[in-house]
Write a structure and sequence with these properties.
Layout (H helix, E strand, L loop, with lengths): L4 E9 L16 H19 L6 E5 L1 H12 L1 H13 L3 E4 L12 H12 L7 H5 L3 E4 L11 H6 L4 E5 L17 H4 L3 E5 L2 E8 L2 H7 L2 H14 L6 E8 L22 H7 L7 E3 L2 H5 L6
Parallel strand pairs: 1-2, 1-8, 1-9, 2-3, 3-4, 4-5, 5-7
Antiparallel strand pairs: 6-7
Length: 292
């Protein structure tokens, strides 16, 4: 059995929230800073222990990389850069100002994608990190079919769209149910003769729906062993970087031994001993796996 199950963790960075305050405290972006620091430090600690987990980061540029983080948490940007260079973390495009890409006209859309890569203020992914993957995780994971031609024109090679069990979803409810072999592999989406690659994406709610990450991968592994699934699989878990799901819940009695209570640390450790698990990124998987 040569098939593997690849697992990737994605973190959506946007420090400006319309529903919260615009201050450096718990009511504003202070919690973003706290949780992002926790994610970065935890991933590095796991790497230092020999667990090769990687992060995929989709960061909004204007508010986060250009204004808030350089002023209030420049250490976060430095740690992100270090992880890209030393541990294989990946930067993908979200959009310059967290605007709704699916609602933009052609000029606005083009500006948002291009400025997310490089801009005069130096807050583009290429400006800061020196490299990036031309993959887009659009704002709120929204997608408009008529923009396939725009994505292609800009050289975007893939979109990350939720195929999720919860209402925060992109396309699971509007197509026939996918077999697991397809639900965890890149797909080809075609609209009016133009095609692009879509990477089905999941979140922490899908992990809870499966019980825990270990149960999820073991269920899929059984289908690989039986021959029902004949290819590698990729579980890409993407969620807001300020989500408390990434933090340890510090439960005093059970000491976070219950599944899904130990944040990113627990998710990684519960599958790290399985010999068929490969920690990966979206770009890394797409570089070696064509759409099914």
């Amino acid at each position: 059995m040569n098939c593997k199950i690849h697992v990737g963790f994605g973190f959506h960075v946007n420090c400006y929230h319309s529903y919260r305050g615009d201050t450096n405290d718990g009511l504003g972006f202070g919690s973003d800073i706290r949780i992002i620091r926790h994610i970065l430090d935890t991933l590095t600690k796991l790497n230092e222990e020999g667990i090769p987990v990687k992060g995929t980061w989709d960061s909004e540029n204007f508010f986060s990389l250009e204004q808030i983080l350089p002023k209030y948490a420049p250490d976060i940007i430095e740690k992100m850069k270090d992880r890209v260079n030393r541990y294989g973390d990946e930067q993908i495009i979200m959009g310059y100002s967290n605007g709704a890409l699916s609602a933009m006209n052609d000029d606005e859309f083009t500006e948002s994608i291009e400025k997310a890569v490089t801009n005069p203020q130096g807050s583009g992914l290429l400006d800061i990190f020196g490299k990036y993957e031309k993959i887009v995780r659009p704002q709120e994971v929204m997608f408009t079919p008529s923009q396939v031609s725009l994505y292609n024109k800009l050289g975007v090679k893939a979109l990350c769209l939720y195929y999720s069990c919860v209402p925060f979803d992109a396309f699971r409810t509007i197509i026939p149910a996918l077999d697991d072999e397809y639900a965890f592999n890149p797909l080809t989406y075609t609209y009016k003769g133009e095609s692009m690659t879509v990477m089905p994406t999941y979140n922490n709610s899908d992990i809870c729906d499966a019980g825990c990450l270990r149960a999820w991968v073991k269920e899929l592994r059984a289908k690989q062993v039986s021959g029902e699934i004949k290819n590698d699989l990729f579980i890409f878990v993407n969620m807001d970087a300020d989500a408390i799901f990434w933090e340890t819940m510090n439960l005093p009695i059970v000491k976070n031994k219950i599944a899904n209570t130990d944040g990113i640390n627990g998710l990684v450790r519960e599958i790290a001993d399985l010999d068929y698990i490969v920690f990966d990124t979206v770009g890394g998987y797409l570089n070696n796996h064509k759409p099914l």
